[in-house]
Structure formats: C-alpha cells, structure tokens
Amino acid sequence: MKITAQDLLKFGIIDAIITAPAGGAHRDPKAAIAAVADAIASALAELDGTGPSDIRASRTAKFLTMGRKI
Predict the structure, then answer these.
(1) pTM across the whole model
(2) How far apart are CA 58 and CA 55, in angstroms?
(3) How many whole angstroms separate alpha carbon 33 and alpha carbon 42?
C-alpha cells in the first residue's frame, strides 16, 4: 500500500505537509513544534471570518470528495 504525505495531499486527505527539521523532528523538537504551530495558525487564519455553517459545509464537501482526486 502506497501511503506517503504527498499521496495523502494529492488525494485530499490532508490539507498540507509540514516540513520536518533536517534529520527529523526528534533532532530539533523546538523547530518541529514551531513548524506545527505556524501551520495551525495559518489554517486558523484561513477560517477567520467564516461562519460555523460554512465551515461545516466545507468539511462535509472535503470528506465526500476524499480519495477521488487523482
């Protein structure tokens, strides 16, 4: 079974890929935590001003199309 981060992104299962520090997150946990924090902040900023019903509709659409993107 071929499951890579790039495949998950292509199939619409994940929204983004967070790049790990050189050598892996265990080599530089602070940089890894900062990268995750930046990704979360960016995702939340995209939702700013969006109403709950719009967010639910968007998530529903995402889950219904998951795996259908090729």
Answers:
(1) 0.75
(2) 5
(3) 14
